[in-house]
Design goal:
By secondary structure, the chain is mostly helical. It has five helices and no strands. This is YhcU family protein.
Length: 134
Amino acid sequence: MKVVVASTEEQERHIDELVEQLYTELFPKFFPDGEIHKLKEQNVLKPQDSDQMFNSNLKDAFQIISSLQAVVAVLEHIEDCKHGQDYQKMFERNCKNLNDYGYYFPMTFSQFKHAKSQNGEFSQYIKPANDWIV
């Protein structure tokens, strides 16, 4: 008999928050809106219905969270990374882990490393600073 501990609602929410962070804070730094829209259409980082139960236990949820956090950390510091090979290996390992858990992530390190900076560009995907209409 094997005991499996289910993931918590907080973990599920945190996974959703990390995916949202990638779409609203990081992808707009690297890609124009058209490419981000294509990623959404391809269901990038959205688990399939058959994989939805995959992250329902505690261990799997922790693996997904840690992989998403690692990808976020690498992308936040990709411009000033001095150890590009180490960052690339970490990025690829965590992308593979996400794909293994059903979170489709077809992006490569070089796509981000060589992307034309979109900083300062307006994007519909960037989270607004506030929700008030003036």
